[in-house]
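Exam revision sheet. Question 4 asks you to relate a sequence to its structure. Input first:
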Amino acid sequence: MHQYELLLLLTPDNSEEDVDAYLSELESQLDGVTFHEKDFWGKRTLAQEVEDYTEGVYVVTRLTGGPKALQEMESLFRMNQKILRFLLLKIKQRHRSRFSPSRKNRQQSTSASSNLNGTRQDKNDNEPAKSNTEKNDES
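Answer key, structure tokens:
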């Protein structure tokens, strides 16, 4: 079971109660889909007409479900006349990347970067390395 975020664009005649009823009906119809949070954005003016509508009702919700249930849900969305558009996004679980620097490496890199103030320093001495123009001036 993965977590998803769903954005629904509905016809402007839908109220918040209609959306709640539709989502609870979906949850009972589909095996393995659970809606967790719902954010009702309300009626908004569309930038472009969508199926002859200039306004639409936006709803964002989080859900969990399996792939078969989500495919069935998408087919139900396509058949429903009240849903103008939908977008389903998988939420990736945050995990530490194996390529992220360890705490020790991060401390070394920050201390090394704080020593630099526009000039390169050699590893063996504390004096800044001379630039090409300074070397040419000496000769």
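Marking note for examiners. Strands lie at 2-10, 34-50, 53-65, 83-90.
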